[in-house]
Amino acid sequence: MIPGFEKLIEQRINDAKQKGAFDNLSGFGKPLKFEENGNVPEDLRLAYKILKNADCIPPELEVRKEIKQTEELLETIEDAHETYRILKRLNFLIMKLNTMRKGSVEFDVPQKYKPRLAEAISVKK
């Protein structure tokens, strides 16, 4: 690809995202059905179906799932020390996810360490 062209593409996608161009797309929030819509080449469909049935997901999605579970756990914690430990784990997972991505830094997931820790400590004293 032409140098600098990727940055231009990412910027245009980011601008469209901020304007809400992707908010009301058909199928938003629904899982993709690869075997039904024909987007997957015929020789790979069986392999995709086997992986899907075995609940195998890409590593990036596994980390996203673990981040979501950690955030839900964080909401239920009462102890400030435990909250601190869980926040450290959450930030580690977010850093891990960000290093797995090959795109622009603009699309990285922000860490939630300082604001949530300060809020948790001030509320749970």
How are the secondary structure elements laid out?
Blueprint: H1 5-19, H2 34-37, H3 42-53, H4 59-76, H5 80-100, H6 113-123
Kindly describe this structure.
65% of the residues lie in helices and 0% in strands. It has a domain of 66 residues. α4 packs antiparallel against α5 and α5 packs antiparallel against α6. The model has no long low-confidence stretch (mean pLDDT 77). The longest helix is centred in the last third of the chain and has 21 residues. The chain is mainly α and 125 residues long. The chain has 6 helices and no strands.
Report, as a whole number of angstroms, the end-to-end distance: 54 Å
For the biggest sheet, the summary is: none
Q: What overall geometry do the principal axes of the alpha carbons give?
A: extended
DSSP strand tally? 0
Rg over CA atoms, rounded to whole Å, is 19 Å
Mean pLDDT: 77
Poorly predicted residue ranges: none
Strand proportion: under 5%
H/E element order:
HHHHHH
Structural class: mainly alpha
Percent range of helical residues: 55-70%
Keywords:
6 helices, mainly alpha, 125 residues
Summarize the structure.
The chain has six helices and no strands. With 125 residues, the protein is an all-alpha fold. The model has no long low-confidence stretch (mean pLDDT 77).
